Design the sequence.
């Protein structure tokens, strides 16, 4: 039972360094990281292996050569092998091109489950998992808070308005999981050292039997601008609770948000 | 006559950066939030010991064939430094994991290493280093504990004091006099003692100024029987082994001190950026800026000295003791100075337990005291200076 | 072809709120080119209810399926219908069901994909989509390239369009071509009901959301009272859901619901970027937090530094009093 987990390398989020009564997280990383939501997919796959339900976990990424780092970071958490699809022609790929390429790579890897995170930090529609399923002609089990494997089938637990549904489809499937999977494990030092020594498989478009000319993006950005800045918040501070409640009520009334 | 050393060099690699990022993430997310509680309750953080063991951070000084990760000296220093930045008590866990095992690393047989290192590298067992006695601190040779030969065993009798982790260790490296007549320098031997052995007991724990979550124990040995197979090296080797151990282990304390200093500097900088007095942020006042600059640059100087010394130890430089002593001297004094200044930057808030710097200042003091007081370090350095310059004693 | 299609999810025989919103949006877009809105109806009772989409703005409707099967199982008829009708765009709700179907369309048609959009405009016969990307830090405008097929797939967040009011008329209804797809093999094997029906967050005008600072279920009970006084509903940050104080259905954020209320009260919520993404479109944001440095202070309209346990009950009392008076 092989699970292929797709991981994407995204820019690290930078945050201001702030003081709090306890030393707070210093997030000034300048390098790229594994898309945080992919870590849940990695964690889910590793748990299934630990439970004896999967025996091979392969990580797959599409990106520039530096994206090998993302594959190694995933391998540092666990797993057996890593594959990077890289080709200069793929710069600026949109959802459809990404789906076509990942689909071709997944067809080559032929796992029983192709697993992804539910969205990436820098993407918009989180459409890649479903598009991959369509290209590969496989059933889609998306937005699972848990992935389970049964005899010849996969199941996801998916939120509905009043609880959860268990959706099932016969293997092989394409699936995605949410952050409800549970906290991803830290990469251990031995994991990092082992991942550094592993040899990754690298595929170009030619290796996948794809023609760059046929993989043109279907959308392009024509403008990018910063959002309109909001004026700074009005602050109410240093007053008693009664006074605060009164001021909030007046504020709401002045904006006709209450009678 | 020159007293300056040949130019030692080292390089920080990408692996070092990755290691630092890994440990820092753990420290920020899991260790720092526990630091105040550990200090307030004086409870050993078993959960964090478990976490460090799981992340393979207790085996950094052990070889891969024993289950460790065999990091270089700088890597080991980085692990200690990044943990100490969040919490000095927790940083003692990897420190003592190495210190307790060092005598075996330096003088143990392969059989002894194979017997104990696998469990130590994984953190399954905790070690401790038992040298100090009530009457034998800086004056190690004034030791009184005895180890009398009896058939295939030695019988240990005496008391050790101020033993870090002595009460939670599974195995100790203990030093005792096998030949009291010959005195401490020639008559001391080293032993590996499992704490389950009958006759061993923990007499009491110290209540301390700082590193309060780290148990510091007085240990009683009452006819504790140790097989001769657990003796380290030959009879009489003990003093040499102990000194060789301290020559290396003091570097971990230096790394701890650097970490404490960095944590204090970061906290002071963050506070100064938020604190407003006289209609401005205090970080914009020159007086505060000058203090922060001194704190940061002195911490950096100490750090670089620790890395150079680590590289010297890895190279088995015959003068490594000079380097490790210098690093521990500078780093310990830097930590004390920087944490005191950090409290000053915080002003009145620095004095209250709601903010971390008063704890850091209390924690820093020990780095000037244990594993050789600053005065002992100065003696070591002076002697090496004189020896290198050909000046007789 | 100037028509604009839209996914119309049906619940218990009636069009869902998203169906009504998208109907209005699709009608607006289609009108610019002289086309009509085409409802692609699915879900329980879609067959009987599809005609009602006419009053919502649809010119005609196509029934993809009428049973309670997972939304993704209508993928086959959906793709076939879209190929046949070749509209210039398909609007899909930015919900898991909507995204599943939108993604299948993208993969099957090789379509240009956009969204979730803030606005769609027709400029010189060309679709232009405005989106908030990189977790709200950049606004981008994108369009299909010349290689894109005729139909663009556009995700639309709740609240982007307002349902038509006072519309009438029935839409002509046809059945979708039957087409098999691998998605037909997806089925529900078990349903676990855990909570009573929760008012849909995406439809609420007022949301009172609680975070880690609320401390537990008792705290959320106070937020319920405040929400009731304001005529709104309760939401939560991921931390509160992870802690088990509220069901995950109430989670707002990058991995939860995206909402666009007139008033969003963030109580005991620090305001991490992942939460902000879920509520940054709210018209008015009022935050109550005892940490003066909480990031939520940077994008709130009113930031109250104080103890929520003291302030919230008093606020509820004052608002109730005003209403009573």
Sequence:
């Amino acid at each position: 039972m092989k699970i292929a987990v797709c991981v994407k390398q995204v820019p690290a989020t930078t945050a201001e360094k702030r003081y709090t009564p306890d030393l707070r997280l210093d997030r000034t990383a300048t390098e790229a990281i594994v898309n945080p939501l992919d870590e849940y997919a990695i964690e889910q796959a590793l748990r299934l292996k630990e439970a004896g339900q999967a025996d091979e976990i392969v990580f797959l990424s599409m990106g520039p050569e530096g994206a090998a780092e993302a594959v190694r970071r995933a391998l540092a958490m666990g797993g057996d092998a890593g594959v990077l699809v890289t080709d200069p022609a793929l710069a600026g790929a949109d959802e459809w091109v990404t789906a076509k390429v990942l689909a071709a790579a997944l067809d080559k890897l032929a796992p029983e489950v192709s697993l992804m995170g539910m969205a990436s930090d820098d993407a918009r529609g989180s459409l890649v998992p479903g598009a991959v399923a369509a290209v590969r002609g496989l059933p889609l089990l998306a937005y699972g808070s848990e992935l389970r494997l049964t005899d010849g089938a996969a199941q996801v637990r998916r939120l509905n308005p009043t609880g959860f549904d268990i959706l099932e489809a016969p293997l092989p499937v394409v699936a995605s999981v949410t952050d409800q999977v549970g906290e991803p494990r830290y990469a251990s030092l031995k994991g990092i050292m082992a991942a550094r020594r592993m040899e990754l498989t690298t595929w170009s478009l030619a290796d996948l039997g794809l023609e760059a000319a046929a993989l043109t993006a279907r959308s392009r950005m024509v403008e990018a601008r910063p959002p309109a800045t909001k004026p700074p918040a009005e602050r109410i501070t240093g007053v008693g609770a009664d006074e605060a409640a009164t001021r909030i009520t007046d504020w709401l009334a002045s904006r006709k948000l209450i009678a | 006559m020159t007293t300056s050393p040949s130019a030692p060099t080292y390089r920080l690699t990408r692996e070092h950066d990755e290691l630092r990022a890994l440990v820092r993430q753990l420290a920020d997310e899991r260790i720092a939030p526990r630091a105040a509680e550990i200090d307030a309750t004086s409870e050993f953080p078993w959960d964090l010991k478990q976490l460090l063991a799981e992340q393979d951070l207790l085996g950094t000084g052990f070889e891969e064939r024993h289950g460790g990760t065999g990091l270089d000296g700088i890597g080991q220093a980085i692990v200690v430094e990044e943990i100490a930045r969040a919490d000095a008590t927790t940083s003692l866990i990897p420190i003592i994991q190495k210190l307790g095992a060092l005598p075996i690393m330096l003088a143990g047989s392969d059989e002894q290493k194979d017997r104990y290192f696998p469990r130590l590298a994984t953190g399954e067992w905790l070690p401790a280093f038992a040298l100090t006695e009530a009457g034998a601190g800086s004056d190690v040779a004034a030791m009184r504990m005895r180890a009398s030969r009896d058939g295939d065993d030695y019988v240990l009798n005496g008391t050790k004091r101020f033993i870090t982790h002595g009460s939670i260790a599974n195995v100790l490296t203990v030093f005792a006099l096998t030949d009291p007549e010959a005195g401490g320098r020639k008559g001391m031997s080293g032993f590996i003692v499992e704490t389950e052995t009958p006759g061993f007991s923990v007499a009491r724990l110290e209540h301390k100024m700082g590193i309060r979550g780290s148990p510091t124990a007085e240990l009683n040995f009452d006819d504790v029987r140790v097989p001769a197979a657990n003796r380290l090296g030959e009879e009489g080797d003990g003093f040499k082994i102990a000194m060789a151990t301290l020559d290396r282990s003091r570097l971990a304390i230096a790394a701890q001190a650097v970490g404490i200093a960095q944590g204090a500097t970061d906290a002071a900088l963050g506070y100064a950026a938020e604190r407003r007095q006289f209609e401005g942020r205090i970080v914009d006042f020159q007086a505060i800026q000058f203090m922060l600059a001194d704190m940061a640059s002195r911490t950096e100087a100490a750090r670089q000295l620790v890395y150079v010394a680590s590289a010297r130890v890895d190279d088995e430089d015959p003068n490594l003791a000079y380097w490790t002593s210098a690093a521990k001297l500078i780093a310990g004094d830097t930590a004390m100075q920087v944490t005191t200044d950090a409290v000053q930057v915080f002003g009145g808030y620095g004095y209250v337990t709601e903010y971390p710097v008063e704890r850091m200042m209390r924690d820093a003091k020990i780095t000037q005291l244990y594993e050789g007081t600053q005065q002992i370090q100065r003696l070591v350095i002076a002697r090496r200076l004189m020896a290198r310059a050909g000046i007789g004693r | 072809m100037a028509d604009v299609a839209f996914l119309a999810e049906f619940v218990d025989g009636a069009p869902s709120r998203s169906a009504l919103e998208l109907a209005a949006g699709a009608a607006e877009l289609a009108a610019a080119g002289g086309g009509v809105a085409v409802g692609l109806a699915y879900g329980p009772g879609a067959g009987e209810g599809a005609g009602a989409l006419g009053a919502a703005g649809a010119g005609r409707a196509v029934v993809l399926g009428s049973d309670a099967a997972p939304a993704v199982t209508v993928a086959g008829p959906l793709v076939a219908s879209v190929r046949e009708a070749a509209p210039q765009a398909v609007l899909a709700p930015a919900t898991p069901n909507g995204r599943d179907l939108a993604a299948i369309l993208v993969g099957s048609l090789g379509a240009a994909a956009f969204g979730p959009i803030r606005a769609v405009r027709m400029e010189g016969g060309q679709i232009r989509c405005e989106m908030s990307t990189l977790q709200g830090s950049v606004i981008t405008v994108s369009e299909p390239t010349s290689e894109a097929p005729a139909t663009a797939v556009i995700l639309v967040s709740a609240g982007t369009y307002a349902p038509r009011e006072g519309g009438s008329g029935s839409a002509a209804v046809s059945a979708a071509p039957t087409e098999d797809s691998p998605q037909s093999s997806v089925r529900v094997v078990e349903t676990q009901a855990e909570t009573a029906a929760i008012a849909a967050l995406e439809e609420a005008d007022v949301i009172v959301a609680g975070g880690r600072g609320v401390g537990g279920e008792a705290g959320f009970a106070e937020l319920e009272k405040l929400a009731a006084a304001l005529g709104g509903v309760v939401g939560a940050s991921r931390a509160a859901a992870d802690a088990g104080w509220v069901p995950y259905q109430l989670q707002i954020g990058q991995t939860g619901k995206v909402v666009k209320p007139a008033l969003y009260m963030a109580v005991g919520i620090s305001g991490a970027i992942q939460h902000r993404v879920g509520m940054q479109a709210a018209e008015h944001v009022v935050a109550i937090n005892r940490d003066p440095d909480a990031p939520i202070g940077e994008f709130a309209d009113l930031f109250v530094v104080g103890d929520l346990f003291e302030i919230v009950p008093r606020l509820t009392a004052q608002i109730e009093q005003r209403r009573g008076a």
User: Anything to note?
Assistant: The first strand of chain C starts at residue 4 and ends at 11. Chain C has a mean pLDDT of 92.
